[in-house]
Amino acid sequence: MKENLVRASKSTIEFLTEYYAAMEAKDTERCRSYYTNDMTVTFANAPKLEGQDAFITTLSGLLDQIESIHHDVIAAWEEDDDVLIFESLGTWTLQDGSSLSIPACSVCRMVDGKFADQRIYVDNAPLFAALQHDETVQA
Predict the structure, then answer these.
(1) Which of 14, 49, 95, 113 measures 20 to 30 Å from 33, CA to CA?
(2) What angle do CA 119, 110, 105 make, to 5 degrees?
(3) pLDDT tens per residue across span 11-23
């Protein structure tokens, strides 16, 4: 991360790094621990997911379709009222070995050190198209 793009504490950067490490390990129960029970997640224009179970079910389904995922945190800002904003680059490796990188920006409300509301501004259309193609090739 470039120094001028960070206005977040070291502990917040470590939190994001550990959160993404859980996702990269496909450890959905560890991912669950980063969210409040009544959390919400919205991916761009997709319907809002409400509660840990809805999110973990969606995350598990997505992780089952890929070989691996890696996130780089590009920038992060902590704001008043427990708001965290961060930019990331997700690199998805599909089961056929191909990969693609997709940038995202997340705006989050934190409660007691956990995500309570996460709004992820991302265009996952290239990922979904690649996953659909990957399924067609394997069939």
Answers:
(1) 95
(2) 30
(3) 999 999 999 999 9
